[in-house]
Amino acid sequence: MSSIKKVKLGSQGLIVPTIGLGCMGMIKFNGVYEYGTTDEKEAINTIHRSFELGGNFLDTADIYGPFLNEQLISKAIKGNRDKYIIASKFGIVIDDNGKVTMTGVFNGKKEYVKESIERSLKNLGTDYLDLYYLHRLDPNIPVEETIEAMSELVKEGKVKYIGLSEVDSETIRKAHKVHPLTAVQSEYSIFVRQPEESGVFNTLKELGIGFVAYSPMGRGFLTGEFQKPEDLSENDIRRNFPEFQGEQFYKNLALVNELKKLADKKNITTAQLAIAWVISKGYVPIPGTKHVKYIEQNILRDDE
Questions:
Q1: Which of 6, 67, 86, 150 is most buried, by the most CB atoms less than 10 A from its CB?
Q2: Identified catalytic residue from 33, 35, 64, 188
Q3: Which residue numbers in the chain have pLDDT < 50?
Q4: What is the CATH classification number for the domain harbouring 180?
Q5: What is the extent of the structural domain holding 211?
Q6: What is the 3-state secondary structure (H, E, C) of the chain?
Q7: Number of domains comprising the chain
Q8: Tens digits of residue pLDDT in 18-65
Q9: 128 catalytically annotated
Q10: What is the pLDDT of residue 32?
């Protein structure tokens, strides 16, 4: 395993590599939508190669699949669980058959917290998670109630650290008073700067909470691979995202082309530039890939 630089994520004791691996795109969504093409063998090889390079911080969620992503990771880490740092998320309602009953329905009740952790532990083939996030806030349940239930998981040894995803400063403060948060995860990239504009970063710094950036490559846009919307396969879920549609696509492409000029001067790819930019801010990016060649490009070692 490489000596990739490690950093503190927050102030509660969790140590992680400077870059994690977002695993969401390794499987199909509800058996239909993809994040590019998917191949289980290549995905597992990617996780193993990431580990060899020092990237042992894996990010998943019960909604990815649903459940299939956690099950894929279980296969990849079998026999080496204690050598990986596994983060998963819960809160988007899924039934026991792995069906999303209603899109956009969230559940932060104590009973659902307990139900969700047991499912994730079973799917991942482990008896604990290193980091457990509330994926989305339940607007009908005080966040304090959800965090109290998550705190119980820590006391039971089923979870080491807890966090939130896509929340504002007020919610972070309320939650942190109940149980110290280790991390907050939100979308953040050269393209998407909402966490800094909203004041969330200031709150995290004040409270000693770490930040994990998902989609640090602009959902793949910052790789420079896409020159027209049709470059995405018909089943690629990104075809539904505004930034990949019509005039907005070409506005974004123009920005990517400018970044490519800067990357070329440094003899790196635009993807490497995008990741390095997030790391330079003091945050932990979790770019998603399911190909060995890209994980080798994405992981920035101490000597690069």
A1: 150
A2: 64
A3: 32, 301-304
A4: 3.20.20.100
A5: 6-219+279-298
A6: CCCCCEEECCCCCCEEECCCEECHHHCCECCCEECCCCCHHHHHHHHHHHHHCCCCEEECCCCCCCCHHHHHHHHHHCCCHHHCEEEEEECECCCCCCCCCCCCCECCCHHHHHHHHHHHHHHHCCCCEEEEEECCCCCCCCHHHHHHHHHHHHHCCCEEEEEEECCCHHHHHHHHHHCCCCEEEEECCCCCCHHHHCCHHHHHHHHCCEEEEECCCHHHHHHCCCCCHHHCCCCEHHHHCHHHCHHHHHHHHHHHHHHHHHHHHCCCCHHHHHHHHHHHCCCEECCECCCHHHHHHHCCCCCC
A7: 1
A8: 999 999 989 876 554 555 566 899 999 999 999 999 999 999 999 998
A9: no
A10: 45
